[in-house]
């Protein structure tokens, strides 16, 4: 007995609207929003310039935490379910945030 493959699939464009909201909202709220907050906190912290300034360490930590969250978001977006559903522009936000946070960490 052979089974015929159905042409109706979950991956049809008309079915992706709700799935984009289901996958994109938690990704944005739980990963990219905290990363944006950490990036802005890294810029808000102004160290005095001393070699053992704890504010410098805090700003460096927030910059590195932002890069780590963006990397986790990029890895999660690369999962085939997310990649097919969300599209390629979802790679732009973590890349930009991670680049800004990396540059902030390097200039401290």
Automatic annotation (TrEMBL):
This is Uncharacterized protein. It comes from the Bacteria. It comes from Streptomyces racemochromogenes. Keywords: Membrane, Transmembrane, Transmembrane helix. The chain crosses the membrane at residues 21-45, 60-82, 89-107.
């Amino acid at each position: 007995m052979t089974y015929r493959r159905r042409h109706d699939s979950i991956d049809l464009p008309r079915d992706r609207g709700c799935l984009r909201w289901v996958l994109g909202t938690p990704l944005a709220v739980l990963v990219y929003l905290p990363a944006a907050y950490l990036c802005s906190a890294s810029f808000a912290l102004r160290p005095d310039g001393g070699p053992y300034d704890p504010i410098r360490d805090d700003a460096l930590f927030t910059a590195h935490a932002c890069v780590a969250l963006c990397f986790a978001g990029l890895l999660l977006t690369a999962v085939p379910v997310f990649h097919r559903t969300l599209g390629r522009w979802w790679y732009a936000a973590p890349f930009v945030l991670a680049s800004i946070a990396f540059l902030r960490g390097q200039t401290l």
